[in-house]
């Protein structure tokens, strides 16, 4: 199997970087269209417009209506054609960014994504999640290229609710362990081949950065401020984890996250909060050393990630329901089959219960 690594063409991060967005966008397009929801437009719209005015460059801004649906994509596609846009900019959360990716894909124009939070590693990926207009999952749109540019304004991200940054740490926490499992099994990554040493190194650096800077970053953001630790965690949550998962592979943690969506009690949780517990379950499943499991538990407790089912809102441990979670985790095509051994629902159920007990003791 060929080794493949994929990534955005350019990654830019820093305080107040949004004020210079036009300087970065101009080399890839002269007629920009930006999309953002009403809240984000109110937050950063004037900064973006002023940046383009300073460069005497064309910008059209359109309101994103909140759902990455076929209907919304088609509406904004038409507007981008009418504006003769030759580059699309998505500013905001994941659904806005995915809509921009889809527009860029269908229009065959460059895509610039500007996350205003660092809650997942999705911004760098060549993937968009499409929903129905009512908000139900519809399909994945697999895009042949990553975004041309990712711009992270750390001042804006530091001002977002701290729970979002911590959720991003939970998502990033799995990256190294899933990459390691996938490398041992020889599974194919989302990049379409075997992992490169570079991608695996980024996945490991992601984990090391979380341990070194996660708690300090959380404290800074709780005070609405940035710091070097916050800068490091934004990069870990977004770039290191993004390249790490896409080019090194997914395994048990994300499959267990998908299984946990079967529990109504977990619907209030963010993606990364469920992935963090899925990481603990994966470590138990592979019989990782207790020293490693304890390190992960201590990290989760320090930043406030859930380590047991009770903390996730599951008041009663119903084994039948948990077996359904385990079965969903092991569904055909799930990434849990990238583990370097055969995984069964009963083995996952056992790992869930053991992880819950271990996570309840700290």
Known CATH architecture of the largest domain: Up-down Bundle
Structural class: alpha/beta
Which of globular, elongated, flat, extended, rod-shaped describes the shape?
globular
Terminus-to-terminus distance? 43 Å
Number of domains: 2
Put simply, the count of helices is 13
Give a verbal description of the structure.
The structure is a single chain. The protein has 362 residues and is an alpha/beta fold. The chain is 53% helix and 12% strand. It folds into two domains: 10-157, 3-Layer(aba) Sandwich (Rossmann fold); 161-361, Up-down Bundle (Dehydroquinate synthase-like, alpha domain). It has helices spanning 21-25, 38-54, 70-82, 94-107, 154-158, 162-185, 197-222, 228-248, 252-260, 271-285, 290-303, 319-329, 345-361, and strands at 10-14, 31-36, 58-63, 87-92, 111-115, 127-131, 137-142, 149-153. It has a six-stranded parallel beta sheet with strand order 1-8-5-4-2-3, with helices on both faces. A two-stranded antiparallel sheet has the order 6-7. Strand 2, helix 2 (38-54) and strand 3 (58-63) form a beta-alpha-beta unit. The chain is globular.
């Amino acid at each position: 199997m060929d080794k493949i690594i994929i990534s955005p063409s350019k990654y830019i991060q820093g305080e107040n970087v949004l004020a210079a967005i036009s300087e970065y966008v101009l080399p890839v397009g002269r007629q920009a269209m930006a999309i953002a929801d009403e809240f984000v437009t109110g937050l950063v719209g004037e900064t973006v417009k002023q940046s383009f005015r300073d460069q005497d460059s064309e910008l059209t801004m359109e309101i994103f209506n909140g759902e990455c649906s076929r209907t919304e994509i088609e509406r904004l596609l038409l507007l981008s054609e009418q504006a003769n846009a030759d580059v699309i900019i998505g500013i905001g959360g994941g659904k806005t960014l995915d809509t921009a990716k889809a527009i860029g894909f269908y229009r065959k124009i460059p895509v610039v994504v500007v996350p205003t939070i660092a809650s997942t590693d999705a911004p760098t990926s060549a993937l968009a999640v499409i929903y129905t207009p009512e908000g139900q999952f519809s399909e994945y749109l697999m895009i042949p290229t990553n975004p041309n540019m990712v711009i992270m304004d750390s001042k804006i991200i530091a001002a977002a609710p701290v729970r979002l940054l911590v959720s991003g740490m939970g998502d990033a926490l799995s990256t190294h362990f899933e990459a390691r499992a996938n490398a041992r099994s020889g599974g194919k990554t989302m990049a379409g081949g075997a992992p490169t040493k570079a991608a695996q190194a980024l996945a490991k650096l992601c984990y090391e950065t979380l341990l070194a800077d996660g708690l300090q970053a959380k404290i800074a953001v709780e005070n609405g401020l940035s710091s070097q630790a916050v800068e490091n965690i934004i990069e870990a949550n977004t770039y290191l984890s993004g390249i790490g998962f896409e080019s090194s592979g997914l395994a048990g943690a994300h499959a267990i996250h998908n299984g946990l969506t079967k529990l109504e009690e977990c619907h209030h949780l963010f993606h990364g909060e469920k992935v963090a517990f899925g990481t603990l379950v994966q470590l138990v499943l592979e019989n990782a050393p207790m020293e490693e499991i304890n390190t992960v538990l201590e990290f989760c407790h320090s930043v406030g990630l859930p380590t047991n089912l009770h903390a996730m809102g599951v008041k009663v441990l119903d084994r039948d329901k948990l077996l359904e979670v385990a079965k969903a985790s092991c569904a055909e095509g799930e990434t849990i089959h990238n583990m370097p051994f055969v995984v069964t629902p009963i083995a996952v159920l056992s790992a869930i219960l053991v992880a819950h007990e271990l996570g309840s003791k700290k």
